[in-house]
Amino acid sequence: MSKKSILLSGATGLLLSISAQAHDAAENMDDLTRAIAVDYEERLEDLYTHFHANPELSFVENKTAARMAEELRALGYDVTEGVGGTGVVAVLKNGDGPTVMMRADMDGLPVKENTGLAHASKAVQKDRNGNEFPVMHACGHDVHITSMVGSAKAMQDIKHEWSGTLVLIVQPAEEIIAGAKAMIEDGLFTRFPKPDYVIGFHVWSGLTPGKIIIEPGTVMSSSDSVYITIKGVGAHGASPHQGLDPIMIGSSIVMNLQTIITRNVAPLKPGIITVGTFHAGTKNNIIPHEAKLGLTVRSDDPETREKLLEGIKRVTNNTAKALGVPEDLMPVIEHAPNRTPPTINDPEVTAIVRGVFEEEMGDHLMRRPRDGMGAEDFAYLMAPETGVKGVYFSVGGSISEDPSQAPSHHSPEFNVSPKPSISVGTEAMVRGAVALFNQD
Ligand SMILES: [Zn+2]
Ligand SMILES: [Zn+2]
Q1: Are residues 72 and 162 in the same domain?
Q2: Ligand nearest the Cα atom of residue 203
Q3: Which residues are catalytic?
Q4: 55: domain CATH number?
Q5: Which of 50, 173, 433, 435 is the 20 to 30 Å CA partner of 275?
Q6: What proportion of the chain, given as a percentage, has pLDDT over 90?
Q7: How many angstroms is it from 104 CA to the middle of ligand 1?
Q8: Percentage of the chain surpassing pLDDT 70?
Q9: How far is the CA of 75 from the centre of ligand 1 (A)?
């Protein structure tokens, strides 16, 4: 039972409830904030609590997807399930005009929740490889999908305010940077109306509740995982000249890789090459036959990304050559498939959406420079080769007085304030979409 129906129980309550129901739906754009607030109290809060308590891992979001499909179908959308694995696509055709896509990601993380909340997750689930993990919505994707249900209702209620085709996508596996690509490969842009524009948002625990940050240009970095296997020749540690030491070669590669950032990339262009794993050897007096490095590579633009990935090959191969590695033992460099380009907001689309936020939600807008190189596979949906222009923005949901002290995303203590983030996220998505539909 929702809070509202508890408040309104009893005979007078019944009458009030009926009259309130008649005005629940948004009648026009001016009525949107109020209508979303009512929807939150009556429906979205319970839905959020349900999703938060029942998170699922990447590509096995079966119950979440089924529930989303059910909610969107009930709102009159034409729903297709199983797109790119567990993805859901919901279409609402509403006359002539552009096609606008809204995206929400739905996966949780292999984290054991430690928030102490009444609706904290106790879920344990097998991932797609059969390994069991505790699961938690430790990144706020429960906020995104709940807000999508709110947006779906509002867009239906104010149908007379816009014209075109609305496509909602419930995306799997953002956390392993795979779901957007999987949906595209399964015909997202060919089996369904192809969007002219795509919009989406992420809730942030480190941002004041209800605040919105929307900026043109790069908003999330590219992310690539690279694995390097260095082959050597095993020998006794006391006879290094009889072997070929992969630890020494690997160490030189680690050091030389950093020269790519400092010597090849322009000083004002951000870039990261982090060697996060270095595995080799079994015993102090044995030269092993192999060493393995694991790298994460980040950049903010496609040119720098290419420079870093090319540079890694060049430095690795030439360092090996310089240290006497023969042709048949050259290092093996693997570029893992879970990768994403940078998320670059289209300046025109950003100006349109930001413009309507300024007019209608001005109090919520704030500016803050980026302070990290996180990545997001939303980038695939508006990569240049898709021809789709888009904008991705941030909505604050901090639970702390001082947002900079809030528990970070992906931590067991992660928590966001659902009411402002869902209500503001919903309103922003709806106003943004309507502005894109109604351009002259
Ligand atoms: Zn995340
Ligand atoms: Zn996330």
Answers
A1: yes
A2: 2
A3: 107, 174
A4: 3.40.630.10
A5: 173
A6: 91
A7: 13
A8: 95
A9: 28
CATH code of the domain covering residue 234:
3.30.70.360
Query: Which of 335, 357, 392 represents a domain boundary (last residue)?
Result: 335
Long-range pairs for 331-335: beta carbons < 8 A, 24 or more residues apart: 331/228, 331/229, 331/230, 331/231, 331/249, 331/253, 332/228, 332/229, 332/231, 333/226, 333/227, 333/228, 334/226, 334/227, 334/228, 334/229, 335/224, 335/225, 335/226, 335/309
β-bridge pairing 217-220 and 235-236: unpaired
For range 289-317, the mean pLDDT: 97
Taking the centre of ligand 1 as the mean of its atom positions, its distance from the CA of residue 136, in whole angstroms, is 11
224-238 residue pLDDT tens: 999 999 999 999 999
User: Would you say the C-alpha torsion 91, 95, 98, 102 has a positive or negative sign?
Assistant: negative
State whether 215 and 316 are in the same domain: no
CB 333 within 8 A of CB 260: no
Let me know whether 39 and 102 are in one domain. yes
Question: Is 21 domain-assigned?
Answer: no
Give the number of the ligand closest to the Cα of residue 141.
Answer: 2
**Contact (CB, 8 A) for 67 and 134:** no
pLDDT 10s digits, 28-48: 898 999 999 999 999 999 999
Distance between Cα 246 and ligand 1 center (Å) = 35
Claim: this prediction has a pTM higher than 0.85: yes
Looking at the 3D structure of the chain, how many domains does it have?
2
Owning domain of residue 37: 3-13+26-220+342-437
User: 144 with 277, same domain?
Assistant: no
